[in-house]
Amino acid sequence: MKAFLSIISLLAAPVIVSTVQAAETAPAALSGYDFTVGTQFKLGYAVSPSFTPEFADMQKALIEKLNKLDEAKIKAFVESYNPTMLIPYSADLWDSVEAYDKYKAEWKKATLQAQAQVALSLQKAGEKTWRFNAVAIDPNTRREAPVTLSALTYNPDSNTWTSAHGELKPTEYKVTDDCVFGAQIGTEWKLEKQDSFAKTTQILRVSKTTDGKAVFVVYALSEVSVTTGRPLNQGGYTLVFPIQQAKLDIGTPGSR
Fold first, then answer.
1. Running DSSP on this structure, what letter comes out for residue 7?
2. Were 156 and a residue from 27, 174, 240, 243 both cysteine, which residue would form a disulfide, CB within 3.0 to 4.6 Å?
3. Would you call 201 helix, strand, or coil by DSSP?
4. What's the confidence (pLDDT) of residue 141?
5. Residue 250 CA to its chain's centroid (Å)
6. Which of 147-185 are b and which e, b meaning 16 or more Cβ less than 10 Å from the residue's Cβ?
7. What is the sign of the dihedral through the CA atoms of 209, 147, 236 and 6?
């Protein structure tokens, strides 16, 4: 477990719009994540990792070494690179195993940085479908704005999500504590398609930390031009919610 997840303490239930408990229960694939159902909303945060200055210096040196490699090695690295996972050791990128161990130690010091407060509820979208009703909350005005994942609908019978781009299909998601957000297990729903204009990738992931303290909801959309390889539309965010009356003490949104 990442060190920053130790900041989750069992203090108070972050739930707003606390009305009568909804009688409906979450679909099987979305149960066990402590989502509120119906008119109740659970408070969480949109977050990003924050690294130490020492890690930033190491990352800069790493990029310099990477840029000196031949084109084939650079391409292989880029294709396998996942910004949320610790980069595996490579003699091409580190002078020694000891240098890599120092890099890994700084990676493990990453902390959660709140970007915005969010509220989320699992709600019926139709007779047989569901959706996440998610809103971002302005910390100054307390006004709410819809979050894009609310546009997706979930079908429990097929265990798929549907967006304007098509159907997102499920696979198991499992990562170790080399993930910057900690060891987790859950489900990732993904859409990949390509036409003569663009290649589209859309992801919705729901996972729980292996210590059972937090749930992560991740959304990402990428559209890349087939002809130029340039991004046409890219965006995404990571939302974190405490489980069972846990409270996230992660600082004021927008601060460092």
1. G
2. 27
3. strand
4. 79
5. 16
6. bebbebbbbeeeebbbbeeeebebeebebebbbbbbbbe
7. negative
